[in-house]
Design goal:
The complex is a heterodimer. Chain A is mainly alpha-helical. Chain A has 15 helices and two strands. Chain A has a two-stranded antiparallel sheet. The longest helix of chain A is centred in the C-terminal third of the chain and has 32 residues. Helices cover 20% and strands 36% of the residues of chain B. Classes of the chains: A mainly alpha, B alpha+beta. Chain B: It comes from Desulfacinum infernum.
């Protein structure tokens, strides 16, 4: 046990927790004012719902003793044998601290999906889907990569969750947009973001919290945490600049929303690579993430699915790019426990990364589709049309975001 | 008595207020409004989505004056609010039947 590592991980955990309210602000500002509370609620309440799942069976399914490479068993249900001594995943911190850190990841992942079905999803449907999805998609995929499952054993590198969190949620978002359907008035009415200052503030909090997410994923306060910290900063800054540059060329104006969106795209893309690559590759990963994700967001307009807040374009595409880029740029110079990528003489790593990404894409898409159908049959997915027009704040929560 | 209502560009509000002050208009009511005339809307772009925002932000200025002052007030607003470009707005003049000062109960022109 190491008090320095424990202190570092406690702070990192709190930083990751802050990302979820940050996401609530990021999303909340992007919707119309009649839906601001309902949208923020769908992120915020994950802090509660997933915490309960985690204690009862979630931590055990994700990290408990491996069953066939696909899932942890129920041996650690109710956190049995998860206590103050270090567990098998981090030798220098209490097992409970590791579990708390991982809990924050499990919380933000379903919250990310909510951007896809924003402004039309029933609260009851959202809750049921979140419980089902977290249990049957997040916990298994998390186990595959980090909990001793088959992808981790295969050698897939995912430093802080490019596949587990971002590809996973981005693909679930695509299924959500397709199954839940378009918002009423899509492409007929202007859906202007009601408060971009909230969105920029949210992006700032995400950026801040992401230092805990990426540096904390080193699990010790050492050199790898420092590398991940540095890479997080440069990739994010580069992606913000790349996005607004692309916009400037394409539409003639750099936008504030573009800067905020680009920053998030950079954070997403550097996540799997953060502790495995050097700072110059991180800069390249960020720059290209800004271009790729902006392109993906433009492509959505052509393809015509209503992923309301661009979860697919930013998290799905950014996560995929990050996973593959890790297979290109990873270098054991920066992390001896990692691997070398294609550019350092190991083309096989790129293949492994692609297999990991593909597995997550297929599994998450199929399961998300089924779980949305199940949810639709049990609680329904969408609010009635009249409620959608009136807004979710009043019809789902009997509240108003702004009172004059 | 007449009520004069002017829809103006937001950035000329300060000079309209100064000009009306200088000719002795004692009270103004100002509202932020949105609407369109010949100017039509403007484009806004959020990520990939481009929207025509039809309603332009404008300021509505309302004041009440004795009928014989109508022309001088209208001229003053015209001079202060005109940029010569599309979207300068409009002035409406209405006849007014009664004005009552709530504090004292005075009626008519003394209540303006």
């Amino acid at each position: 046990m190491d008090s320095g590592d424990t202190a570092f991980m406690l702070i990192a955990t709190a930083l990751v927790m802050l990302m979820t309210p940050g996401l609530a602000l990021f999303y909340g500002g992007l919707v119309r004012s009649k839906n601001v509370l309902a949208t923020m609620m769908q992120s915020f309440i994950c802090l509660g719902v997933v915490s309960i799942l985690w204690v009862v069976f979630g931590y055990s399914l994700a990290f408990g003793p491996d069953k066939g490479g696909v899932i942890g068993g129920l041996d650690w249900a109710f956190l049995r044998s998860v206590g103050t001594e270090p567990g098998p995943y981090a030798a220098t911190i209490p097992h409970l601290v590791f579990s708390a850190f991982q809990l924050m990841f499990a919380i933000i992942t379903p919250a990310l999906i909510t951007g896809a079905f924003a402004e039309r999803m029933k609260f009851s449907g959202f809750l049921l889907f979140t419980v089902l999805w977290t249990t049957l998609v997040y916990f298994p995929v998390c186990h595959w990569v980090w909990g001793g499952g088959w992808l981790g054993k295969l050698g897939a590198l995912d430093f802080a969750g490019g596949t587990v969190i971002h590809i996973n949620s981005g693909v679930a978002a695509l299924a959500s947009a397709l199954v839940v359907g378009k918002r009423r008035g899509y492409r007929k009415e202007p859906f202007q973001p009601h408060s971009l200052p909230l969105t920029v503030l949210g992006a700032g909090l995400l950026w801040f919290g992401w230092f805990g997410f990426n540096a904390g994923s080193a699990l010790t306060a050492g050199a790898v945490a420092g590398v991940a910290f540095f890479n997080t900063q440069v990739a994010t800054g580069a992606a913000a600049v790349a996005w607004i540059t692309a916009e400037w060329i394409k539409i003639g104006k750099p936008t504030t929303l573009g800067a905020a969106s680009g920053a998030v795209a950079g954070l997403v893309a550097v996540t799997p690579a953060a502790g495995f690559v050097g700072p110059v590759p991180a800069l390249v990963i960020g720059l290209l993430a800004g271009f790729f994700c902006y392109g993906a967001v433009l492509a959505k307009e052509k393809l015509g699915y209503d992923d309301a807040l661009d979860v697919v374009g930013i998290h799905g595409v950014g996560g995929l790019w990050g996973a593959l880029a890790t297979g290109l740029f990873a270098s054991t110079v920066y992390n001896a426990a990692g691997a070398d990528g294609l550019f350092y003489g190991n083309p096989k790593q790129l293949l492994i990364q692609a297999v990991g990404a593909l597995a997550a894409i297929v599994y998450s898409f199929v399961l998300s589709w089924v779980l949305l159908k199940v949810t639709g049959a049990v609680t329904g997915l969408r609010v009635p049309e009249e409620d959608e027009v009136q807004g979710l704040d009043q019809t789902q929560h009997s509240e108003t975001g702004y009172v004059l | 008595m007449v009520k004069i209502e002017a829809i103006i560009k937001p950035f000329v509000l300060e000079q309209v207020k100064e000009a009306l002050n200088s000719i002795g208009v004692t009270g103004l009511t100002v509202t932020e409004v949105r609407g369109f005339g010949r100017q039509k809307g403007h484009r806004e772009i959020y990520r990939g989505a481009e929207y025509l925002v039809e309603f332009q932000p404008k300021i509505k200025v309302e004041t009440v004056v004795p009928e014989e002052r109508t022309d001088v007030v209208v001229e003053t607003i015209l001079k202060a609010a005109r940029t010569g470009k599309i979207g300068d707005g409009k002035i409406f003049v209405y006849p007014l039947t009664q004005v009552i000062r709530i504090r004292t109960g005075e009626r008519g022109e003394t209540a303006i």
